[in-house]
Amino acid sequence: MxxxxxxxxxxxxxxxxxxxxxxxxxxxGTENGLCPECAALAEYxxxxxxxxxxxxxxxFCSNCHVHCYKPEMREKIREVMRxxxxxxxxxxxxLAVRHVIATKREAKRLAKRT
Length: 114
Known about the structure:
Order of helices and strands: HHHH
Number of domains: 1
Strand content: under 5%
Structural class: mainly alpha
Largest sheet: none
């Protein structure tokens, strides 16, 4: 169980980092790596993921009932998600399809609760 949770955390960190990299490359013109602002956001997002007490049951931070990001960082990550989310189908199609499937499953699960 602990191994699965670790794997889930690492996968989430990988996906958010890829999205930040895509955003940084397209918006800030970086070729390799991240600009300092995006590097700080990626580090912050990974720290939040490592400390998340709900990781076992949640799908994505956007579906969580507790928002642990500071308001400034939350707005930055939203900007990244709005930009990178639709583009993931082009740059990382498997991850994008997995995300859509997980989102649909979560919506069904939440609909059953009400």
